[in-house]
Amino acid sequence: MAYETIIVEVEDSVCTIKLNRPEALNALNSHLLGELCDALQAADQNDKVRCIVLTGSAKAFAAGADIKEMSEKSFVDMFLSDFFGEPHRDFMAIRKPIIAAVAGYALGGGCELAMMCDFIIAADNAKFGQPEINLGVIPGMGGTQRLTRFVGKSKAMDMNLTGRFMDAEEAERSGLVSRVVPAKTLLEEAQAIAAKIAEKSMLTTIAIKESVNRSYETTMTEGLLYERRVFHSLFNTEDQKEGMAAFQEKRQAQFRDR
Ligand code: CO8
After folding, report:
1. Which UniProt keywords are listed (predicted)?
2. Whether complex ipTM tops 0.90
3. Cα angle, residue 21 at apex, residues 127 and 114 outer, rounded to 5°
């Protein structure tokens, strides 16, 4: 399908989706989010794809929700349309892993979109922020919720109340991003990490994504029980037999998603 605001490429088992509204620093409007969710759902359903990389440009992953699209809306418009509610739900329903490869600005909804991914690789020029306070609003897609869980209350308050930006080094130190890499090699490195994940069994990949995400939604006791039961259930798969046999035979496992 031809998209106007994103570029989608599938190479081997990795689907790379690039946000592509350079004139607006990849600001997220309804059209872009609709196309993004469509592409993510297609990748999720494509048996060839085993991992997804979401990226932007060298200057901006995304500079936030599109202020020009939102500025004239009323409370009633926002509430009745459940503004961005549907793309948020669609995004969170994707079962395959999504890596955010962030260079430049990841602000407001851009920072929130990166946090909706499974983990974030940052270029050394990345800047994260929740500057919504400067616009007379608050974050609406996780900036007060997910960011607080990533970086803790003190930094989340600091960023949300002052609107200041966090650079890549601070973001890594604070647990917002998993790795920082040179800006020049960001996409290459994110795709290499995705290719590594693509080699694993899809059964365990999806089980891990679901289990880690469950840790945000439940108590420790329930989460540990869930994890243990999923662990037990994987002993009913060929990939568990293959993975453990390959270890003992000192060879690379050949997973078949069975
Ligand atoms: N929306 C619309 N257009 C934007 C946005 C944006 N968020 N960000 C940048 N642009 C546009 C600019 O208007 C400009 O367009 P034009 O050339 O037509 O004037 C173009 O992109 C380039 O931007 P700048 O000239 O400003 O570039 P600079 O390099 O000078 O500055 C910045 C870059 C610092 C990133 C600056 O553009 C900026 O501050 N942008 C806004 C950042 C921001 O406030 N983001 C938060 C937006 S609100 C939000 O995200 C809420 C999310 C909640 C959604 C969930 C709802 C339920």
Report:
1. Lyase
2. yes
3. 40
